[in-house]
Every structure is written in C-alpha cells, then in structure tokens.
Specification:
Structural class: alpha/beta
Helix content: 10-25%
Radius of gyration: 11 Å
Largest sheet: 3 strands, parallel
Oligomer: single chain
C-alpha cells in the first residue's frame, strides 16, 4: 500500500509505525501488508520511520532534510 509523504503530517505521533498508519486510516489492517512511503507532498516535522516500511528515494531525502530518521 502507498502512503504519500504529505499525509504523515496528519499523524499525532512522530513515530511512523504500521499501527499508527492503520489508526489514521492510511493503510488497511491485516497481516502481510507492505507499505511504501512516496515523496509526494511536504514534510515539515521530524518523523521516525519504523523498520520494514519502504521509503522512496525522494521521500527519504525529504525525511532526512526535515530531521527525521529511517530505521
């Protein structure tokens, strides 16, 4: 499933996990779900991306520029 970088601004928590994305309604619940964050949109807060969530090259650059980390 695809999540756009700008959508992460809606999250209350700075930790981007499968559970947080499900609570926000950005991804479906269930086992075996693959998630990729794409670089569409702007990110103005620091976030930490949980290990296992894939990130596009452009999203990675924007996350790091905003002071975030990718595990």
């Amino acid at each position: 499933q695809v999540v756009h970088l700008g959508d992460l601004m809606r999250l209350q928590n700075s930790e981007v996990t499968y559970a947080e994305l499900q609570r926000a309604g950005m991804i479906k619940k269930g086992r075996g779900i693959h998630v990729k964050i794409l670089g569409d949109g702007e990110l103005t807060k620091s976030v930490t991306i949980e290990k296992g969530i894939k990130v596009s090259k452009s999203a990675r650059e924007k996350i790091i520029k905003a002071g975030g980390t990718i595990r």
